[in-house]
Design goal:
mainly alpha, about 60% helix
């Protein structure tokens, strides 16, 4: 069983990891998704959820992740935008906080 403090610590750690705030790590999400031919919000989210959760995710989880990349549909997402890495970091941090990301 996971308590609320441990859950919060795990989510914080995941966010520090994707933002390269842990010494010795270098995560380049833009390059990762581009190498895997995923350059749109839908493609990136679908690919990530498939990789992490083997396709076991809800429509709400998918929509939430796409919403993070697109500011709830108000801004398109393009992999080459200046803020793409930041938006990807926010989305991946969100997805890692999903219940499926907490299974051990």
């Amino acid at each position: 069983w996971i308590n609320s403090n441990l859950l919060l610590q795990r989510i914080r750690h995941a966010n520090r990891l994707v933002r390269n705030q842990i010494g010795g790590t270098a995560v380049d999400l833009r390059a990762y998704f581009a190498r895997n031919l995923q350059v749109t919000a839908d493609g990136i989210v679908g690919f990530l959820l498939q990789q992490l959760f083997y396709g076991e995710f809800t429509q709400l989880e998918y929509d939430t992740a796409v919403g993070v990349l697109t500011d709830d549909g108000t801004r398109p997402f393009f992999i080459n935008q200046p803020d793409a890495e930041t938006r990807l970091q926010q989305m991946v941090g969100t997805v890692l906080g999903y219940p499926g990301g907490q299974y051990q």
